[in-house]
Amino acid sequence: MTRTVLFVHQNFPGQYRHLAPALQARGDRVVAIGGPSSQPLPAIPLHRYDPLPPGGVPPCHPWAADFQTKILRAEAVARCLEALLKEGLRPDLVVGHPGWGELLVVKDLLPAVPVLHQVEFIYQLVGGDVGFDPEFADADWRPLARLRLRRATQLLALQDLDWGLAPTPWQASTVPAPYRQRLSVIHEGIDTAAIAPQGPARLQLQRAGLSFGPGDEVVSFVARNLEPYRGFHTFMRMLPRLQQLRPGAHVVIVGGDGVSYGAAPPGGGSWKEAMLRELGDALDRRRVHFVGRVPHPVLHELFRVTACHVYLTVPFVLSWSLLEAMSCGALVVGSATAPVQDVIEDGRNGLLVDFFDHRALAERLAAVLADPAGHAGLRREARRTVVDGFDLRRVCLPRQLELVDRLMAGSATQDGTAGER
Length: 421
Fold this sequence. Notes:
Layout: E1 4-9, H1 19-25, E2 29-34, E3 46-48, H2 65-86, E4 93-96, H3 106-109, E5 115-118, H4 142-159, E6 163-166, H5 169-173, E7 183-185, E8 203-205, E9 210-212, E10 218-225, H6 232-245, E11 250-256, H7 271-279, E12 288-290, H8 296-305, E13 308-311, H9 320-327, E14 332-335, H10 338-341, E15 351-353, H11 358-370, H12 376-390, H13 392-409
Parallel strand pairs: 1-2, 1-4, 2-3, 4-5, 5-6, 6-7, 10-11, 10-13, 11-12, 13-14, 14-15
Antiparallel strand pairs: 8-9
Helix pairs in contact: 6-7, 6-11, 9-12
């Protein structure tokens, strides 16, 4: 019997780039509802909703604006789903990300259909990203009040939770304790066959007229956008000391100039501009290369070439780039923060430093650059960590499919261990 799985994600395929095609390939019917920027996958019908109501967005209290945006999305998804149900759609399972409010009223249309939530991160009033970095702490009570209210839709989603799927243990720990018994920890998966050490690797920096290969003193840093949430300020403040210790080292920085999380620097502009102003002549810019955003294959080539990759983050969602760097056999120096410690054990499969200690970061990097052979074992263990725990085909996708099957069979909600790793 053919079963139907409905995906709901404002930026489809999002986290389901592998799961949705795998379900389709094995014979399930797969249908997707997504926002205006969603991208289709082959042979999977995509129905885009318009989150803007016909009469425009009504005025509301500023603190309620985020809630209203999510309610508008919930209503738009409901209208789209209602039309599909009238056309004969009968889902056996709904899979979606509750972060944008899209799943809030799905149960009112499909009360008997299980819903699998992608639980990426629940806002933390203490112990998470907010207030972690004292440089950006705000003594005013209003930002915390706004954060408390932003949790409303997340907590509503948990209340209706059939089952949740979190990518890492620490991200799962952000879920309030009463809901964790309905939660599986399964990462989306890394294609370790394709994202792997491969030779001969070569990185070309055309504007600088430079070419790097394995063995060159290259330090890499990657973030979607260069900002303090991913430790960009700490990384930049480290560079003058590193350049003193290793005068032949070059630094390649990948990332955009926008803001994904947090806020823009005081006075506007980008964090790159702000940090370059702060460092001034203390930094030799000839050895620091900002390359913006690059295609995925180029990023992997950088990971194969780099002598040391730096990954820093406040307590927040773990970036794919860390796991992909490790899968390519890169030696990672990361921040000793909870999301990174889920993956890296200091001295076994990478190195850890205090998020704020830019001097310690420089000295650790210099030690790695001075003795690459002595740190080769960390590279091997880094890749082994990803292959053993995060491989797409052998580990993550089979567990995701098993969890989907158990939910559609009605058994996962009666078994607190369904799909766990």
